[in-house]
Amino acid sequence: MRTFKHLKEFIKKNIFSYILGIIILIAIDVFQLVMPKVLGELTDAATTKTLTSALLLKYIGIILAVALGIAVGRFGWRILITGTSRKMEYWLRNRFFGHLEKLSKNYFNNNKTGDLMAHATNDIQAVRMAFGPGVVMMVDSIVLTILVVIRMAQDINIKLTLMALIPLPIIAIMVGLMGKEIMKRYKNTQESFGNLSDKIQENISGIRVIKSFVQFKSQYKIFKGANDEYFDKYMHSAKLFIAIFPLVMLLSSVSFIIGLGYGGSLVIEGTLTIGELTSFLVYLGLLVWPMMAIGMVINHIQRGTASMERLNKILNTKPEIIDEDIDESIKDIEGEIEIKGLTFNYGNSENPALEDIDVKIKKGESLAIIGRTGSGKTTLINLLLRNYNVDDGQIIIDGNDINRIPLKVLRENIGYVPQENFLFSKTIRDNIALYNNAEEFENIEKAAEIAEIKNEILGLPEKYETMLGERGVNLSGGQKQRTSISRAIVKNPKILILDDCLSAVDTHTEEKILSGLKGVMKDRTSIIISHRISTIKDSDKIIVLDEGRIIQYGSHEELLKTRGLYREIFDKQQLEENLKNAE
Ligand SMILES: Nc1ncnc2c1ncn2[C@@H]1O[C@H](COP(=O)(O)OP(=O)(O)OP(=O)(O)O)[C@@H](O)[C@H]1O
User: Fold this and answer.
1) Which CATH code for domain 7-315?
2) What does the pLDDT look like over 251-262, one tens digit per residue?
3) Is residue 535 within 8 Å of 507, Cβ to Cβ?
4) Which Pfam families match (predicted)?
């Protein structure tokens, strides 16, 4: 039961629906027992010529009433048990998604999207099947088997009953043995389904690159490989659970043959009436369903358990970045940042991504970071956003260690424009007003104006209400960047971070955006990462990173005066500019 501990809360709330559903299910099973008895009596009355029209009408009435009762009852348990299992699926999916949202960036670095999607669909569905059809079949098959066997033994003949039931334990043992293997094979199937989902997700997201690099054939081959693997594993698993059904049917036919053979001989002997034999055979017929159901129950329960175990791996993962030892009294951020002796390693690389970083930014100052690719610029921002925990050293904001600031307060006060922007398939307005959906239109428009995207938005067919395609496919690279910038500006943050997010706009537009930002960021802290000197030259302070270390520090003018990487980059960019102008 530990496997299902994450469902405890749901089961507790819905236990009465299950109990009532099970009671109805049992009542139907009792009702079903009336049929063989009535048929037996009817046969005996017919063979002994005692059947009258009134008696016939009575039996027909009973059969009708029973059929009606069963129909109403089935409707009831379907609503109560199947309906509740659907609610469970809904509840579990919400819980699963809510948990995923809490997990850290690192978790998503190490787990594939497609695999997580497979958990959210197939595995959750398998758990629902265990708690819907699985429960129904289990209760139904156990109760009906017990009731029918008691009836057969009591009303008809114990010896005949025992003889006819010889195949039952064989079925139980067989199904039990197969169950374990089914679970093992099913887990493998689900793993390869995760891999397949991942390939689909990756190929659809990367379709533009696949097309431009003419990679259809090789990608198709990779996809086909994953699809083949899933198919083979599914078939391997299916062979087993499909085999259960005919095997159970075969063994139940053996029961029938024993019943007919031995029961027939008892009729010949005169120890059993034809009516009793008829009843007995109808009772045996009632046992076919539970026997079949046993196979399916095992299948549903094993699959549900295996899927829940897969889900548990995720649900039991503790979020790495949590509010621990925080100072609840911190409700806001002013924007003073101090980084002391900061060293950070991603854990899987030999050299640290950042080493011994010391920087201080006063409230309202602007800091620029420049450096070769891979020098640690984004890593520093990731740490400021607490996407990762600080290994060594300290980040202090307004005099408080970053770990003391509630995550919500920290992130609410930072406006971050990532290097790789991400737009949702919503309207432009909703994309800009992501932080506060109820943001006043005036502010949205102002932010778009500062980010130099307003005129282009007004040129779109539906203006701010234009729906964006997936990840904003219907916008240009520069438009996407500027929409992301508007999103950070409208948040009105105390700290604004632009991570190389002006690379796709021309220098003229860039200048306009930067001068617009100056007004907004007056008295607020800003950090700009860029490879272009033109973007950062007006910043109060500039740090030059190289292989995770600060190698130069100062203002643009100060840095130009000294020989070093900054000057090198500047000279190179000047030369490029001059060459461009000369063309
Ligand atoms: N999730 C990660 N896991 C392991 N190593 C990483 C991860 N992210 C970045 N790195 C490594 O850390 C180093 C610094 O990366 P970072 O992204 O901070 O560089 P950057 O200066 O922002 O580069 P760029 O200018 O290309 O954006 C690089 O060597 C990179 O390979």
Assistant:
1) 1.20.1560.10
2) 888 888 998 899
3) no
4) ABC_membrane, ABC_tran
